[in-house]
């Protein structure tokens, strides 16, 4: 049986999308349109990928931080990004490890992509404890976090990873030749075909940083991070460019005071002794200059960004101040709030892009858009040959041939979303509302 016959046996002949299917909509968020004042989706629906790949390319790479034992998770991620994007665009991969990659890892990875692949080691100038910190004090801080059951707080390697992604990855020798990067984690999934080059679109739109999920951090992991970020902003006399407000708690609404003259007057001697009268208001220990961190951050396990921003004098000074505070050891500061607060201090909403058309999942958090009406194109089958069983290979491709329904305000291209969890856009803990507020508000009810 020839290839064409085998494809027709397993795949439907039409790429058309259903207009409605209640069983496939479990947990899905119906998209509302966001203002395009500062940002807009680069492509609503599908573009002709054959034409897109003929255009100009960016100087960019995927960056994957992994260890040999994470090979299965790396394979999952590679299969997903290759199926939905890189089988067409062939951007290179840079794999980094604080140890040595073994031959099994290297050979297996190369088998899952036709794109160039490089493997690098992170030396002790970028990973581990810096010389200026007391190692025993830092280790004791990490042990205390473990005793307090702070998520990942007791894992020494997790602290090293967060610090590396906060202030060093962009200076690794293998990345110095690149201008853009796309972070790829083990065990992630993409759900929509990406039929344009996001690096090129970011450059054309003069964007600096792109995200697909914004959520709230666990408060116990970063109790003092905002103090230092705010102190950097004050030290350098920086005014907000409009993004800083995304990361601030809204002040509580004051209760309206009774109209003067209409309230019953009390004797003067009682007013003088009334509890709370003429007292100094309580000071919020977490507030700085009247501002308080709302815990929002761009979830950095996915990000597409300009590397020259991270390498800038301003970002380096920001990281240096945060690093010297000791928060990467005495607390469990992640790279996500570091990147986000740095963006809040240094960037404007127009510098940021929300990849709302990307379907993406990491652990139990997912964003996946509805498909754009009248903007879907026939799908090119892709038989992933590393799946050795022929039937399984065709069944896998057939799964992706059956896309989700199109919906009004949908922006996705041939998306098929997981339905076992609620989309983060409609989930408690999402920071979409905070992003929308600084981005210009909602454009549809």
UniProtKB/TrEMBL annotation:
A GO-annotated cellular component: Golgi apparatus
SUPFAM superfamilies, alphabetized: Nucleotide-diphospho-sugar transferases
GO biological process, one term: cell wall mannoprotein biosynthetic process
Sequence ranges of Basic and acidic residues compositional bias: 249-268
Region called Disordered, residue ranges: 249-282
Active site positions, chain numbering: 303 (nucleophile)
PANTHER family, per the entry: ALPHA-1,2 MANNOSYLTRANSFERASE KTR1, MANNOSYLTRANSFERASE KTR5-RELATED
Name of the protein in its database record: Glycosyl transferase, family 15
Organism annotation: Aspergillus oryzae
């Amino acid at each position: 049986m020839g290839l064409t016959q085998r494809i027709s046996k397993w795949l439907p002949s039409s790429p058309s999308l259903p207009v409605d299917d209640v069983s496939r909509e479990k947990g899905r968020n119906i998209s509302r349109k966001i203002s395009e004042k500062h940002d807009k989706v680069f492509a609503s629906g599908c573009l002709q990928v054959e034409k897109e790949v003929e255009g100009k390319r960016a100087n960019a790479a995927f960056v994957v931080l992994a260890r040999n034992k994470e090979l299965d998770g790396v394979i999952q991620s590679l299969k997903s990004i290759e199926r939905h994007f890189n089988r067409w665009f062939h951007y290179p991969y840079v794999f980094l490890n604080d140890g040595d990659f073994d031959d099994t890892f290297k050979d297996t990875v190369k088998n899952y992509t036709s794109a160039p692949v490089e493997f690098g080691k992170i030396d002790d100038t970028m990973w581990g404890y810096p010389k200026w910190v007391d190692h025993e004090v830092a280790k004791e801080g990490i042990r205390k976090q473990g005793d307090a059951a702070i998520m990942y707080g007791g894992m020494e390697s997790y602290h090293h990873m967060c610090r590396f992604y906060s202030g060093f990855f962009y200076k690794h020798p293998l990345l110095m030749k690149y201008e853009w990067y796309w972070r790829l984690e083990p065990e992630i999934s993409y759900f929509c075909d990406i039929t344009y080059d996001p690096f090129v679109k970011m450059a054309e739109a003069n964007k600096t940083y792109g995200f697909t999920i914004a959520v709230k951090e666990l408060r116990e992991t970063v109790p003092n991070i905002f103090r230092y970020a705010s102190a950097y902003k004050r030290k350098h006399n920086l005014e907000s460019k409009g993004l800083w407000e995304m990361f601030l708690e809204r002040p509580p609404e004051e209760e309206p005071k009774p109209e003067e003259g209409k309230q019953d007057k009390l004797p003067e001697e009682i007013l003088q002794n009334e509890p709370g009268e003429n007292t100094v208001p309580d000071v919020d220990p977490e507030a700085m200059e009247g501002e308080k961190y709302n815990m929002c951050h761009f979830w950095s396990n996915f990000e597409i960004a300009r590397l020259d921003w991270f390498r800038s004098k301003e970002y380096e000074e920001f990281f240096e101040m945060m690093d010297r505070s000791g928060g990467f050891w005495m607390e469990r500061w992640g790279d996500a709030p570091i990147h986000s607060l740095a963006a809040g201090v240094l960037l404007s909403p127009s510098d940021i892009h929300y990849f709302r058309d990307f379907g993406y999942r990491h652990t139990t958090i997912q964003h996946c858009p509805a498909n754009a009406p009248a903007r879907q194109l026939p799908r090119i089958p892709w038989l992933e040959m590393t799946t050795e069983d022929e039937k399984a290979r065709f069944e896998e491709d057939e799964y992706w041939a059956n896309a989700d329904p199109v919906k009004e305000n949908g922006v996705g291209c041939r998306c098929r979303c997981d339905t076992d969890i609620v989309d983060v856009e409609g989930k408690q803990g999402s920071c979409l509302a905070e992003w929308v507020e600084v981005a210009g508000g909602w454009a549809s009810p």
